[in-house]
Design brief:
302 residues; Restriction Endonuclease; alpha/beta; globular
Length: 302
């Protein structure tokens, strides 16, 4: 019986040019058939284009497209063909940022599927993560590079929580434009830390608010009060205060605990946390990422 998946695998791996046809049995040995180049490239391009179109349809709630996408990604894994999961996720995020008519339940399923597929690829996210860590370490604390710090932070959160947080926005105007929020993500999570916030803890958090403080010194009451003032019944009641480092973490945690009296939930993140989370993401350890965030949250609620 012919193993068709093996034949297709080798057809898609052909990349050279031969002047004569090879017998069918040579399709079982990829080293001998690396040459029907235009045919091979056409097959690969057609398959990848079809997978892209399935992704687009699936995130709008098309059940048939989602089922077919799962079949294709499973099949391509079976024949050891790498699906460009990172590129597909970036494309999907671009679509989400342009269109609000997305089926977020299906969106999460598609992202999870691609993330799972990508775990077999050791290069997934590696370049981006290495660059983010390098940039973060190079940024000097202080007003001069405040925007660079904010940009790196928002990109880091986008990578770390690629299957939980969507629609990244920066410099978001609130209170009729009188105030601004550094970074806002839509919380469309169906699992993980941000899902637990809204479902297990009943915290109103359709958006995740992040304030980025590129300071040399510890954060004062005014920085905590500023973020408290950004949280409300419209945007949400969960925020993240990002800073370069904290020397007196006990004092800051007490200030964040005080905010609980107004049902405002704020955790803090420093460079060391961001780098740790990025390294966990690079290793594909999503469960450990959620555990890490849960421990940060427990610092203020326990």
């Amino acid at each position: 019986m012919v193993k068709w998946h093996f034949i297709i695998k080798n057809l898609m791996n052909i990349n050279m040019s031969f002047n004569r046809d090879y017998p069918l049995e040579h399709l079982f040995i990829s080293e001998d058939v690396r040459g029907l180049s235009e045919y091979s490239k056409r097959i690969r391009n057609d398959v990848m284009e079809y997978v892209i179109n399935l992704c687009k349809k699936a995130i709008y709630g098309n059940d048939d497209s989602f089922d077919e996408l799962k079949f294709y990604t499973d099949f391509l894994n079976l024949v050891e063909i790498d699906v460009p999961s990172y590129e597909l996720i970036e494309l999907i995020k671009f679509i989400v940022n342009q269109d609000n008519n997305i089926n977020y339940e299906k969106l999460n399923l598609v992202i999870n599927m691609l993330n799972q597929n990508s775990k077999n690829n050791s290069n997934y996210y590696s370049h981006d993560i290495d660059m983010l860590i390098k940039k973060l370490n190079e940024i000097e604390a202080g007003k001069l590079q405040a925007y660079e710090y904010q940009n790196v932070l928002q990109d880091a959160f986008e990578v770390i929580f690629s299957d939980q947080l969507f629609r990244k926005r920066s410099e978001v105007k609130v209170n009729e434009g009188r105030k601004r929020i550094d970074v806002v993500f839509s919380n469309e999570s169906k699992h993980g830390f941000f899902y637990r916030l809204k479902n297990d803890y009943n915290i109103f958090c359709p958006n995740i608010v992040i304030e980025c403080k590129n300071y040399n010194d510890d954060l004062a009451n005014s920085e905590v009060d500023q973020l408290i003032g950004r949280l409300n019944k419209h945007i949400g009641n969960f925020g993240i205060l990002a800073a370069r480092k904290i020397t007196d973490d006990k004092l800051l945690i007490q200030r964040l605990k005080d905010a609980l009296r107004d049902d405002k939930y704020i955790i803090y993140i420093v460079d060391q946390d961001i780098i740790k989370l990025l390294e966990l993401k690079k290793s594909g350890l999503d469960r450990e990422i959620n555990d890490y965030m849960n421990s940060k949250f427990e610092e203020i609620i326990l």
